Amino acid sequence: MTSIARVPLSVETRAPGGETNAYVLGENEAVLLDPAARSPELDSLVDVRGVAHLLVTHTHPDHVGGVAEYASRTDATVWAHADHRDRFVQASGIEPDRAFENGTRIGGENGDATVLETPGHAPDHVSLATDEGILVGDLAVATGSVAITAGEGHVGKYLDSLRRLYGMGPEKLFPGHGPVIDGPRDALERLIEHRLEREEQVLAAVRGGAHGLGAITDAAYEKDVSSVRDLAERTVAAHLEQLAREGEMTWDGERAEPL
Fold first, then answer.
1. Prediction pTM value
2. Beta-carbon neighbour count of residue 144 at 10 Å?
Protein backbone atom coordinates (compact mmCIF):
# COMPACT_ATOMS: atom_id res chain seq x y z
CA MET A 1 0.00 0.00 0.00
CA THR A 2 1.19 3.47 -0.86
CA SER A 3 2.09 5.61 2.13
CA ILE A 4 1.43 9.30 1.44
CA ALA A 5 3.19 11.95 3.50
CA ARG A 6 2.24 15.65 3.20
CA VAL A 7 4.66 18.51 3.90
CA PRO A 8 3.29 22.08 3.70
CA LEU A 9 5.95 24.47 2.39
CA SER A 10 5.98 28.25 2.72
CA VAL A 11 6.00 29.84 -0.73
CA GLU A 12 4.90 32.99 -2.50
CA THR A 13 1.37 32.00 -3.47
CA ARG A 14 -2.03 33.64 -3.42
CA ALA A 15 -3.53 30.44 -2.11
CA PRO A 16 -4.88 30.76 1.46
CA GLY A 17 -2.20 30.15 4.06
CA GLY A 18 0.72 30.93 1.77
CA GLU A 19 1.72 27.27 1.53
CA THR A 20 1.99 24.56 -1.11
CA ASN A 21 1.84 20.89 -0.15
CA ALA A 22 4.67 18.64 -1.23
CA TYR A 23 3.98 14.90 -1.07
CA VAL A 24 6.16 11.82 -0.79
CA LEU A 25 4.55 8.55 -1.90
CA GLY A 26 5.82 5.17 -0.86
CA GLU A 27 9.16 3.94 0.48
CA ASN A 28 12.19 2.86 -1.54
CA GLU A 29 11.82 4.18 -5.07
CA ALA A 30 9.46 6.75 -3.54
CA VAL A 31 7.85 9.56 -5.54
CA LEU A 32 8.31 13.24 -4.65
CA LEU A 33 5.47 15.43 -5.92
CA ASP A 34 5.39 19.25 -6.06
CA PRO A 35 8.55 20.19 -4.13
CA ALA A 36 7.68 23.88 -4.11
CA ALA A 37 10.57 24.83 -1.82
CA ARG A 38 13.28 23.28 0.34
CA SER A 39 12.67 22.56 4.02
CA PRO A 40 14.38 20.51 6.75
CA GLU A 41 11.25 18.37 7.18
CA LEU A 42 11.09 17.57 3.48
CA ASP A 43 14.86 16.94 3.38
CA SER A 44 14.51 14.35 6.14
CA LEU A 45 11.51 12.68 4.58
CA VAL A 46 13.17 12.50 1.16
CA ASP A 47 16.25 10.88 2.69
CA VAL A 48 14.33 8.37 4.81
CA ARG A 49 11.90 7.34 2.07
CA GLY A 50 14.52 6.92 -0.65
CA VAL A 51 13.03 9.18 -3.32
CA ALA A 52 13.71 7.90 -6.83
CA HIS A 53 11.12 9.82 -8.87
CA LEU A 54 10.24 13.53 -8.98
CA LEU A 55 7.42 15.33 -10.76
CA VAL A 56 4.94 18.18 -10.43
CA THR A 57 1.18 18.36 -10.94
CA HIS A 58 1.73 21.49 -13.04
CA THR A 59 4.40 24.09 -13.61
CA HIS A 60 3.00 27.16 -11.85
CA PRO A 61 5.74 28.95 -9.85
CA ASP A 62 4.33 27.95 -6.45
CA HIS A 63 4.81 24.25 -7.28
CA VAL A 64 8.27 24.04 -8.83
CA GLY A 65 10.61 26.11 -6.64
CA GLY A 66 12.46 23.16 -5.12
CA VAL A 67 12.56 20.88 -8.17
CA ALA A 68 16.17 21.55 -9.19
CA GLU A 69 17.53 21.24 -5.63
CA TYR A 70 15.76 17.97 -4.88
CA ALA A 71 16.66 16.54 -8.27
CA SER A 72 20.29 17.16 -7.39
CA ARG A 73 19.97 15.98 -3.77
CA THR A 74 18.27 12.70 -4.65
CA ASP A 75 19.52 11.94 -8.15
CA ALA A 76 15.90 11.05 -8.82
CA THR A 77 14.41 10.44 -12.24
CA VAL A 78 12.77 13.74 -13.15
CA TRP A 79 9.49 13.44 -15.06
CA ALA A 80 7.66 16.01 -17.19
CA HIS A 81 4.44 16.07 -19.16
CA ALA A 82 5.09 14.68 -22.64
CA ASP A 83 3.13 17.51 -24.29
CA HIS A 84 4.55 20.30 -22.12
CA ARG A 85 8.24 19.55 -21.76
CA ASP A 86 9.25 23.12 -22.66
CA ARG A 87 7.00 24.54 -19.93
CA PHE A 88 8.69 22.29 -17.40
CA VAL A 89 12.20 23.28 -18.48
CA GLN A 90 11.34 26.97 -18.40
CA ALA A 91 9.69 26.73 -14.99
CA SER A 92 12.20 24.45 -13.24
CA GLY A 93 15.45 25.28 -15.01
CA ILE A 94 16.31 21.62 -15.60
CA GLU A 95 15.77 19.04 -18.31
CA PRO A 96 13.52 16.08 -17.46
CA ASP A 97 14.79 12.53 -17.74
CA ARG A 98 11.49 10.97 -18.79
CA ALA A 99 8.04 12.01 -19.97
CA PHE A 100 4.62 10.90 -18.73
CA GLU A 101 1.16 10.89 -20.25
CA ASN A 102 -2.28 9.84 -19.15
CA GLY A 103 -2.04 6.34 -17.65
CA THR A 104 1.72 6.34 -16.99
CA ARG A 105 2.62 4.52 -13.77
CA ILE A 106 5.39 6.04 -11.67
CA GLY A 107 7.24 4.75 -8.60
CA GLY A 108 8.15 1.35 -7.21
CA GLU A 109 8.65 -1.81 -9.20
CA ASN A 110 5.10 -1.81 -10.53
CA GLY A 111 4.33 1.88 -10.08
CA ASP A 112 2.77 3.37 -6.96
CA ALA A 113 0.84 6.10 -8.77
CA THR A 114 -0.98 6.47 -12.08
CA VAL A 115 -1.00 9.77 -13.96
CA LEU A 116 -4.42 11.25 -14.75
CA GLU A 117 -4.79 14.11 -17.22
CA THR A 118 -6.77 16.81 -15.36
CA PRO A 119 -6.33 20.09 -17.27
CA GLY A 120 -8.31 23.24 -16.58
CA HIS A 121 -6.45 25.12 -13.87
CA ALA A 122 -3.41 24.90 -16.14
CA PRO A 123 -2.95 23.25 -19.55
CA ASP A 124 -0.33 20.81 -18.20
CA HIS A 125 -2.17 19.89 -15.00
CA VAL A 126 -2.22 16.23 -13.94
CA SER A 127 -3.27 14.29 -10.85
CA LEU A 128 -1.89 11.05 -9.41
CA ALA A 129 -4.16 8.17 -8.54
CA THR A 130 -3.04 5.86 -5.72
CA ASP A 131 -4.64 3.16 -3.60
CA GLU A 132 -5.11 5.73 -0.80
CA GLY A 133 -6.73 8.45 -2.87
CA ILE A 134 -5.91 10.97 -5.59
CA LEU A 135 -3.30 13.71 -5.36
CA VAL A 136 -5.03 16.56 -7.16
CA GLY A 137 -2.66 19.54 -7.16
CA ASP A 138 -4.75 22.66 -7.81
CA LEU A 139 -7.77 20.82 -9.11
CA ALA A 140 -9.58 20.90 -5.76
CA VAL A 141 -9.43 22.43 -2.29
CA ALA A 142 -11.23 21.65 0.96
CA THR A 143 -12.67 25.16 1.30
CA GLY A 144 -13.04 28.07 -1.10
CA SER A 145 -12.51 27.66 -4.83
CA VAL A 146 -9.78 27.13 -7.41
CA ALA A 147 -8.70 30.00 -9.66
CA ILE A 148 -9.46 29.37 -13.33
CA THR A 149 -8.05 32.37 -15.16
CA ALA A 150 -7.83 33.42 -18.78
CA GLY A 151 -4.54 32.55 -20.43
CA GLU A 152 -3.75 29.54 -18.25
CA GLY A 153 -7.18 28.26 -17.37
CA HIS A 154 -9.97 26.61 -19.35
CA VAL A 155 -13.34 26.41 -17.60
CA GLY A 156 -14.73 23.60 -19.76
CA LYS A 157 -11.71 21.36 -19.29
CA TYR A 158 -11.67 22.13 -15.55
CA LEU A 159 -15.28 21.02 -15.19
CA ASP A 160 -14.53 17.86 -17.22
CA SER A 161 -11.60 17.10 -14.87
CA LEU A 162 -13.76 17.55 -11.77
CA ARG A 163 -16.42 15.28 -13.24
CA ARG A 164 -13.84 12.66 -14.15
CA LEU A 165 -12.66 12.46 -10.55
CA TYR A 166 -16.22 12.49 -9.24
CA GLY A 167 -16.97 9.46 -11.38
CA MET A 168 -13.94 7.63 -9.99
CA GLY A 169 -15.26 7.90 -6.43
CA PRO A 170 -11.90 8.32 -4.65
CA GLU A 171 -11.57 7.68 -0.92
CA LYS A 172 -9.61 10.90 -0.32
CA LEU A 173 -8.21 13.86 -2.21
CA PHE A 174 -4.75 15.24 -1.44
CA PRO A 175 -4.71 18.88 -2.65
CA GLY A 176 -1.83 21.19 -3.47
CA HIS A 177 -3.03 23.71 -0.89
CA GLY A 178 -4.73 23.12 2.44
CA PRO A 179 -5.80 19.98 4.31
CA VAL A 180 -6.59 16.52 2.97
CA ILE A 181 -10.17 16.24 1.70
CA ASP A 182 -11.98 13.34 3.40
CA GLY A 183 -15.29 13.88 1.59
CA PRO A 184 -14.19 13.97 -2.07
CA ARG A 185 -17.58 13.73 -3.76
CA ASP A 186 -19.06 16.56 -1.67
CA ALA A 187 -16.03 18.74 -2.36
CA LEU A 188 -16.05 18.02 -6.10
CA GLU A 189 -19.78 18.63 -6.34
CA ARG A 190 -19.36 21.94 -4.49
CA LEU A 191 -16.60 23.06 -6.87
CA ILE A 192 -18.64 22.10 -9.94
CA GLU A 193 -21.67 23.99 -8.65
CA HIS A 194 -19.56 27.04 -7.82
CA ARG A 195 -18.08 27.19 -11.30
CA LEU A 196 -21.50 26.76 -12.97
CA GLU A 197 -22.97 29.44 -10.72
CA ARG A 198 -20.19 31.85 -11.68
CA GLU A 199 -20.89 31.10 -15.34
CA GLU A 200 -24.55 31.97 -14.86
CA GLN A 201 -23.60 35.23 -13.11
CA VAL A 202 -21.29 36.23 -15.94
CA LEU A 203 -23.90 35.36 -18.56
CA ALA A 204 -26.57 37.32 -16.68
CA ALA A 205 -24.24 40.32 -16.47
CA VAL A 206 -23.73 40.37 -20.23
CA ARG A 207 -27.42 39.85 -20.95
CA GLY A 208 -28.13 42.65 -18.49
CA GLY A 209 -26.12 45.14 -20.52
CA ALA A 210 -22.52 44.86 -19.29
CA HIS A 211 -20.05 44.54 -22.16
CA GLY A 212 -16.52 45.39 -20.96
CA LEU A 213 -14.52 43.18 -18.61
CA GLY A 214 -14.65 45.66 -15.73
CA ALA A 215 -18.38 46.17 -15.94
CA ILE A 216 -19.06 42.45 -16.26
CA THR A 217 -16.88 41.73 -13.22
CA ASP A 218 -18.71 44.38 -11.17
CA ALA A 219 -22.06 42.86 -12.10
CA ALA A 220 -21.04 39.21 -11.68
CA TYR A 221 -19.61 39.48 -8.15
CA GLU A 222 -21.88 40.32 -5.26
CA LYS A 223 -18.96 40.78 -2.86
CA ASP A 224 -16.15 43.35 -2.83
CA VAL A 225 -13.27 41.99 -4.92
CA SER A 226 -11.09 45.11 -4.89
CA SER A 227 -8.27 43.33 -3.07
CA VAL A 228 -8.15 40.61 -5.75
CA ARG A 229 -9.40 42.64 -8.69
CA ASP A 230 -6.90 41.28 -11.21
CA LEU A 231 -7.73 37.69 -10.27
CA ALA A 232 -11.46 38.34 -10.44
CA GLU A 233 -11.21 39.91 -13.89
CA ARG A 234 -9.05 37.07 -15.23
CA THR A 235 -11.59 34.59 -13.83
CA VAL A 236 -14.45 36.41 -15.52
CA ALA A 237 -12.45 36.47 -18.76
CA ALA A 238 -12.03 32.69 -18.58
CA HIS A 239 -15.79 32.32 -18.20
CA LEU A 240 -16.40 34.69 -21.11
CA GLU A 241 -14.11 32.51 -23.24
CA GLN A 242 -16.09 29.43 -22.21
CA LEU A 243 -19.47 31.06 -22.85
CA ALA A 244 -18.25 32.10 -26.30
CA ARG A 245 -17.20 28.48 -26.98
CA GLU A 246 -20.68 27.38 -25.89
CA GLY A 247 -22.29 29.82 -28.34
CA GLU A 248 -23.92 31.96 -25.66
CA MET A 249 -22.12 35.16 -26.68
CA THR A 250 -19.30 36.69 -28.63
CA TRP A 251 -16.15 37.79 -26.82
CA ASP A 252 -13.16 39.37 -28.54
CA GLY A 253 -11.06 39.92 -25.45
CA GLU A 254 -12.48 43.38 -24.86
CA ARG A 255 -16.21 43.33 -25.47
CA ALA A 256 -18.95 40.75 -24.99
CA GLU A 257 -22.25 40.62 -26.83
CA PRO A 258 -25.04 38.13 -26.07
CA LEU A 259 -26.34 35.88 -28.82
1. 0.95
2. 13
